[in-house]
Amino acid sequence: MIKSSLPPILHSNIGMDNIELRLLVAADLESFKGHFPEQAVLPGVTQLDWAVRLGCQYFGYCEAVANLEVLKFQQLILPGQEVTLSISNNVAKGKLTFAYSDGENRYASGRIAFDISPVNSSDGASQC
Question: By its UniProt entry, which SUPFAM superfamilies does this protein fall under (predicted)?
């Protein structure tokens, strides 16, 4: 997966099984370059990268994505916008559900399934 720069987090609301992060989609992000010349838009792959990396950071998953489910991109995210990234954790299934929104506007959503089979090192410790 492409590794992009994580956006500034303006506000966070952290729960046991869910998080809400208010993000600033800065106009100078590398991801905007060349996507598209007439009107820069935040690529879907960047949105996925942020959801995976931030979800893993908060919920302790390794970044080994097994599958993407019900992935939808409804509206464009433009330079300079603020959006809320909501992520819910389903521990039993090893899945995160994410959505990018701003009030009533929904930008993208989906579900990320992780490879949660344990990987052990020679000393018995679990590794990502």
Answer: Thioesterase/thiol ester dehydrase-isomerase (SSF54637)
- What values do phi and psi take at 99, rounded to 5? -150, 140
Kindly state the tokens that stand for 99: 């959505």
pLDDT over threshold 80, residue 53: yes
pTM score, whole prediction: 0.87
- Cα of 8 vs its chain's centroid, Å: 13
Q: How far is CA 127 from CA 57, 60, 117, 118, 123, in A?
A: 15, 12, 11, 8, 10
The C-alpha angle with vertex 69 and arms to 82 and 79, in degrees rounded to 5, equals: 20
Three-state DSSP state, 54: helix
Report whether 2 contacts 45 (CB < 8 A). yes
Q: Check if the beta carbon of residue 81 is closer than 8 Å to that of residue 25.
A: yes
